[in-house]
Amino acid sequence: MHRVPNVLVERNAFLPVHHDTKRTREIDVLITSETAGIPIRIAIECKNEIEKTGIEKIDSFIGKLQDINLPTQLGVFVSKSGYSSGALRRAQDVGIKTLTLRENSISDAVFAAFQSTVYFLLAITNIQIRNNIPSGERITGGDLLFFRDKERKICGSIPDLVWEKWIRGKIPLTLGEGKLLHLKVPSGWKQIVHGQKVKIEDITVSYTINGFGMSVTGPVKQYQLVNEADQTLHKSHATARFSPPDGRLLLLQINNEDDLNNFEKRKGEIVITNRVRTPRIRWLAMYWPPSNRTLVKLNQRMLTAHQKGELLDLNSIPLEEIEGDNLSMLWEPIVKDHPLLRQIQKAKPNSSHI
User: Which of 58, 101, 259, 339 has CA atoms 20 to 30 A from the CA of 201?
Assistant: First the structure.
């Protein structure tokens, strides 16, 4: 309750006795702050007992404060069960503040606590490229989507450029469809078609961001520190505990900002909301950049199509067929030899988002 900026809160602090440096006295909670450049220390004694705090406990605390050379006016006594009338008078005589800790379970009587997590997933829906290739010339999608370096090795792709902006937080977490992104090709990346370099004039990517939300409930307890002398509220604190859900959890798909606001806002309840940017994006039937498992499945599909004398059409493959219906697949490790991944790791070897 007392942890605020520029205030140090310590539990079970041992302070030296001012007239005997070989001895120490234990302070249950020590609060240290500074006023006008002068350090101020407040000692708090805590008792969690069934019976009311009696005068002997107050006298013991007074002795402890005297031993560490702290004025009694900077002493605070906290009891779970209140005080006897004699204890209150003794504390008031020397300026010790007497507080009572009251604990109430409010999850059922007043409101419930919800911890909500929304996972944001970007999906590429369309890619448009303007270049100097004559219209009507037959080219493959791979030639247009992938880029090569000066050694003509693949160094990245258009989905890579979207993914990099996504993980670096350069694309806002705003739900909805029909969003546009104009991409700039990095220096040294070349588009090669029929063995010739192509001049790129513009790349525009359309994308959608969907949310997938989950909520878990937990019991709520409210703690109040009440000044026993006049029954005024000194401080208040509410805490909630959440247990991890058992088994598989179904997520609610959230498609727009209005639905997101309704999901995150519950009237009269404590709501803790986490917004998580997924570490990969969706492109066609896969999460991009791909994992080893994804590439194995795609290679199998390509081999089957080749044996039938067909071309593999990624647009016709459902996402669930390659990635399954578990969102955790987005956290699979990216294939190690992915070119852009190597560049990012080289620039930021400790980057947690990859």
Answer: 339
